[in-house]
Amino acid sequence: MNTNAISGFTSIEQVTNQYLKTNKSKSSDLAATGSFATFLQKEVDTQEELSGVKFSKHAAKRLDDRDITITEDQKDRLNFGVQLADEKGIKDSLVMVDSLAFIVNVPSQTVITAMDGDGSDDGVFTNIDGAVIA
Predict the structure, then answer these.
(1) Fewest C-beta atoms under 10 Å: which of 72, 75, 82, 96?
(2) How confident is the model at residue 38 (pLDDT cuts 50, 70, 90)?
(3) Domain boundaries, the chain
(4) What is the CATH number of domain 52-133?
């Protein structure tokens, strides 16, 4: 008795073709279900986040420690202030938004530290080469 005939396959190629075709159809079904659209939206969202300022771990901790929350309007104004600083060639800027002060490394668009009106010890900001009131 031929064991290949019992299994229904007469060659390795038949087995390989059957399983490879099944895997290919599953991946094409996955692509057709909108996974590309989901991937694309995630990439767009990531690029939008990257287009604005980032907060260093230190700055994020300062905001949290001081219970400072930033509204979308304030974040937009902070981004605008960083853009103005960049246009003027400022490398490390103090950006004032309402009563909030942000020290920003302009080339990397990263907030280094942040404080509210009560946060500065003596009202002195060092290691900056420009300031923007946004």
Answers:
(1) 72
(2) confident
(3) 11-49, 52-133
(4) 3.30.2310
